[in-house]
Design goal:
By secondary structure, this protein is mainly β. It has one domain: Beta-galactosidase, Chain A, domain 5. It has no helices and 23 strands.
Length: about 260
C-alpha cells in the first residue's frame, strides 16, 4: 500500500490490487468501502480503474471489423469491468502526494495490445485521478472508475437520460427518462453533478460523460464515471483509438 497525503486528506493506493485506491480518509473519516470487505470479491471495495471496457459486455462477445471477439465471462454470461481490476500494476513514479502506475491490457480474452497509465494525486480538497490508454493498433476502448462509497445519508444528482437495462442486467441501446431508485443503471446528459451528503460531503467531477449508479447495497453506493455506456461496443457508442490518438479522462473526488 502507498499512502499519499495533503493537509487533512489521505489516499491509500494498492498497485498490486488492480491499481486501485484502497481508501480515502478526510479528517479521520473513511470515504470508501475498504479492503476488509475483499472477502466479498475483488469487485466490491475501494475505487478501481475499469479499462478497456466498463460494466458488462453482454455474453462476453462483440464483433469488431469482422472479428468475433470472445472475452472471458466473469459475471454469469457477461464480461465485467475490463482486464486490469485484479492485476498488479507497475509503479512508474511515487512522491508524497502522487503515484503513477501502468498496466498492460491484454488478458481475459482482450486481443488488442496496449498500455494504460493510472495517475493518482492528493490535492488540496480531494483526490484527482487520470487514465490514459495507448494502443498498438486501432481498438474500441472505454475507461472509467468504480468507487465504492460508504453509504451516504443522501445522494443528489440529476440526469436527463438513462439507458434501458435488459432482464439479464446488460445495457441496451434504448434511452429513456430516468426512473426512480434503486439503480444499477447508466445515466447521461447530466444536469447536476453527483453530490453525496454524509459525515464528509463529497462532490464528483469527471471528463467522462456517462455515469453508472449502483445504490442497491445497504452498506455502499457506487457512482462510476465512464467514457461510454456498458456494452456500448455492441451498439456503437464507443471510442475508437489509434496509436496516434490515445484516450485520456479524469476523475476528481472533492471533499467538502
Amino acid at each position: 500500500m502507498i499512502q499519499l497525503s495533503v493537509g487533512d486528506t489521505t489516499a491509500i493506493v494498492a498497485p498490486e490490487h488492480g491499481g486501485r485506491l484502497a481508501n480515502i480518509m478526510h479528517r479521520g473519516v473513511e470515504l470508501l468501502v475498504g479492503p476488509e470487505h475483499a472477502a466479498d470479491g475483488v469487485f466490491s471495495w475501494g475505487c478501481y480503474p475499469m479499462v478497456p471496457w466498463c460494466g458488462r459486455i453482454a455474453n462476453g462477445r462483440f464483433l469488431w471489423n469482422g472479428r468475433d471477439i470472445r472475452l472471458d465471462c466473469n459475471d454469469g454470461t457477461h464480461a465485467l469491468h475490463g482486464t486490469t481490476f485484479d492485476t498488479r500494476w507497475r509503479i512508474v513514479d511515487v512522491t508524497d502526494d502522487v503515484v503513477i502506475m501502468k498496466s498492460a491490457l491484454t488478458s481475459k480474452g482482450w486481443p488488442f495490445s496496449g498500455i494504460v497509465t493510472h495517475s493518482v494525486s492528493v490535492v488540496d480538497g480531494g483526490v484527482h485521478m487520470t487514465l490514459e490508454v495507448a494502443v498498438d493498433e486501432p481498438a474500441p476502448v472505454q475507461v472509467g472508475w468504480h468507487p465504492w462509497f460508504m453509504k451516504p445519508a443522501s445522494l443528489h444528482t440529476t440526469f436527463r437520460s438513462m439507458y434501458v437495462r435488459a432482464d439479464d442486467h446488460s445495457t441496451t441501446a434504448k434511452v429513456t427518462n430516468p426512473l426512480s431508485p434503486p439503480w444499477d443503471d447508466c445515466f447521461t446528459d447530466g444536469v447536476v453533478k453527483p453530490f453525496l451528503i454524509g459525515d464528509v460531503n463529497v462532490s464528483l467531477e469527471s471528463s467522462c460523460d456517462h455515469w453508472v449508479i449502483y445504490d442497491e447495497p445497504a452498506h455502499a453506493t457506487c457512482i462510476e464515471p465512464q467514457s461510454g455506456p456498458p456494452n456500448g461496443v455492441n451498439f456503437g457508442v464507443i471510442d475508437v483509438i489509434t496509436p496516434d490518438t490515445p484516450l485520456r479522462h479524469s476523475f476528481t473526488i472533492h471533499v467538502i
